Amino acid sequence: LVKGSRAIFMAPAWTAIGWAPGSPGFVWWFTEHKAGEPRLLFGESIQSDLDNSDAEIALATATHVHAFAHRYAKQAETFRDQNTWHTGLLIEWSHRRFCTVVEVGFLHGVSGYGGKCNWFADKNEASPLLDKVMPDSLKKPYDESLSEVRMTDVPMRNKDEFFEDMLIKYSNKGSMPADLQRFFDPTVFTTGMVRIRNCTPSEIAAFCLNYISRAGDYGLMTANCQTFAADFYGFLTGTQGAAPFSNFLRVGYQQRTMAFLYRPTYTERPSA
Q: Distance (Å, rounded) from C-alpha 128 to C-alpha 114?
């Protein structure tokens, strides 16, 4: 090719709605409890994969949900860094064997960073576990205009263990050296009981698949991790007044709990 040439690569049409033609939906779930080995489940097939897991896990129900927030650890924070908070949800299950982190981020945001994820002890390894189990179809440059839902099973059994053994341990509130810290000033800012009846892992996945098909855009001031966490917390707990963590996001926020309810058509990806 002549130096300075440009090329346009065309992807199959199904890549606009998912990572595989038979499993649409930009949702993934990392688990080590499917067939006794680590796997990354994704798209609509998450439901059948979870339903065919160990019965104690497949039939477990979500009991409590906790909303947490943190800033990202930086050597030198800018004004923007000091006012940028990531929020997510921690779900506790009736089996009390582990919990699940649910969050929203840039589409391909984890794969774009080589599979490095804050919820894994081996995040800083050259080839972390998440990257090893991630199918190649998920490995693409990240897109800051679109979102994906990420679900990660973590070994902590409840909120207190997660707060101490993850958020505090890897933060400026713990004893980790500065270069190994991941979080600044973590907090669990609201907690509630899950009021959806018989809310199994498969149901949680379905709600997220429904939501991301309707609210899949990402916007720093409009639709992001904080608005998703507020939406899903409000939906699971029946809290009408749930709101984003940051005050500046609350001004124009409108709760979108209805987005969790209905099966998508996958004919297009509409804006939020």
A: 8
**CA distances (Å), 142 to each of 105, 115, 149, in order?**
10, 12, 14
Sequence letter at residue 231: D
Between helix 201-214 and helix 225-237 the angle, nearest 10°, is: 130
* Strand extents, DSSP E, 60-182: 62-72, 86-93, 99-107, 143-154
- 0.90 surpassed by pTM: yes
Distance CA 271, CA 237 (A): 25
User: From residue 117, how far is each of 107, 114, 127, 130, 195 by CA, in Å?
Assistant: 14, 9, 12, 8, 30
For the beta carbon of residue 212, count every other beta carbon within 10 angstroms: 23
pLDDT digits (tens, 9 = 90+) for 86-142: 999 999 999 999 999 999 999 999 998 999 999 999 999 999 999 999 999 999 999
